[in-house]
Specification:
single chain, FAD/NAD(P)-binding domain, eight-stranded mixed beta sheet, binds flavin-adenine dinucleotide
């Protein structure tokens, strides 16, 4: 009863998706999670943690059956993406340019997780162990023994989907490279006077970008990036004072807003040196924590999920032993370089917009204006950001 094909540690958005995608292949899965997501009721205020879900992630969530449920709860599609530094460099990406009806959706993280949990709970191949925490992992050549706080279980493979401070990664002695950014991000849920629900935008400043993510109804999630001390100062303001600070600092196109709630998050970059060690795999933020500036974090995690499912399905189809390290290493080959490229692109953007010199500003704005005049380049960049 305590023997599984795969144990997924962490039932967040990525861990839950990974468990479902492998259960689809007929594998027997256990998911270990510290705490269950709170149930949904329509009167609940919007959560602060939201994600811009790409078209590629939407396809995965549809395949796993979570999307249909989130649609019945709440989500906000957007068709356009505006980016600029100086007003004259304003560049707009439109779904119609890449023959899509929308570019993505803003969805509360908890609702994504909850929709997948409903599917986990209904799946006969999945055992959900919650509340439960990981204590230790011991690998031998054909099996992994996993000690949890209330029981011991065994598996052919273990997937660490336990987030940025992954214990699985630590217990497997997988090192990381990375750093803490000088900036923090403040997430602020606001009620907006103007309806602007079909666009998401981001204005760049040397101190960090200011972003608006639309939420259903006249609501929005604002993201204010700044150095840590300034974010600390903003966090201490009353809702009224914060509303005034937003009016003073955010672009006029936001219109009048009323602050509902807010919280600050430190920004870190971490990249696991390996995504795979013998029978242990890392996925999602446990493998890579990226600067959230372009809203790619969970989208990269969902790409990991797809890649791992593909690698294992192909091995099963070819009659290979699917849990052999030789097979599992193909997942790392498919994902590590792609994730590194995205992390490095984000850092290049972060560094280039951090330059205060007038010459650097001129070059950045000229670059944005040039992108506007090159529809092929613009559409290619847009399709990449949408995960197409
Ligand atoms: C300010 C900010 C804004 C962001 N905006 C976006 C965005 O717009 N778009 C986007 O794609 N991404 C965004 N991200 C990134 C995104 O939130 C993460 O990439 C995503 O949450 C990672 O999901 P995950 O399932 O890998 O990890 P997590 O969400 O961290 O889930 C890990 C799970 O593991 C559980 N767990 C941990 N340790 C244990 C243990 N020992 N035993 C049992 N369970 C355990 C936890 O309880 C948790 O449920 C943003 C991040 C930040 C900080």
């Amino acid at each position: 009863m305590n023997q599984f094909d795969c144990v997924v540690v962490g039932g967040g958005m990525v861990g839950a998706a990974s468990a479902l995608s492998l259960a689809e292949l007929g594998l027997k899965i256990a998911v270990v999670e510290k705490s269950a997501p709170k149930d949904f009721t329509p009167v609940q205020a919007f959560d602060l943690r939201v994600s811009a879900i790409s078209l590629a992630s939407e396809h995965l969530l549809k395949q796993l059956g979570g999307w249909q449920q989130i649609q019945q709860w709440r989500m906000c599609p957007y068709k356009r993406l505006g980016v600029w530094e100086a007003e004259q460099s304003y560049t707009e990406f439109d779904a119609a340019d890449i023959k899509q009806t929308h570019l993505g959706h803003i969805i509360e993280n908890r609702l994504i997780q909850l929709s997948l949990w409903q599917k986990l709970q209904q799946h006969s191949n999945i055992t959900l162990l919650c509340p439960e925490t990981l204590i230790s992992i011991e690998q031998n050549s054909s099996n992994v023994a996993i000690t949890l706080s209330k029981q011991s279980i065994n598996a052919k493979i273990v997937i660490g989907a336990d987030g940025a401070n992954s214990l699985v990664r630590k217990l497997a002695h997988i090192g990381t490279t990375g750093w803490d950014y000088a900036q923090s991000a403040m997430l602020i849920n606001v009620k907006t006077e103007k309806a602007q629900q079909d666009i998401t935008w981001q204005q760049f400043y040397p101190s960090g970008p200011l972003a608006m993510l639309p939420m259903p109804g006249n609501f929005a999630s604002l993201v204010w990036y700044h150095d840590k001390d300034e974010i600390k100062r903003l966090s201490a303001l009353s809702p009224h004072q914060l509303t005034e600070a937003i009016a003073k600092n955010f672009p006029a196109r936001l219109g009048k807003v009323e602050v509902i709630n807010q919280a600050a998050f430190p920004l870190t970059r971490r990249h696991a040196n390996q995504y795979h060690k013998n029978q242990i795999l890392l996925i999602g933020d446990a493998a890579h924590t990226i600067n959230p500036m372009a809203g790619q974090g969970v989208n990269l995690g969902f790409k990991d999920v797809k890649a791992l499912q593909h690698v294992i399905a192909k091995a099963i189809g070819n009659g290979e032993t699917w849990h052999e390290p030789k097979v599992l290493s193909r997942y790392q080959q498919q994902r590590r370089t792609d994730n590194l490229l995205m992390m490095t692109t984000m850092d290049a953007l972060y560094l280039s917009f951090g330059h205060v010199s007038p010459l650097a500003k001129l070059a950045r704005n000229a670059g944005l204006m040039m992108v506007n005049k090159l529809p092929k380049v613009k559409n290619k960049a847009l399709a990449y950001a949408c995960g197409l």
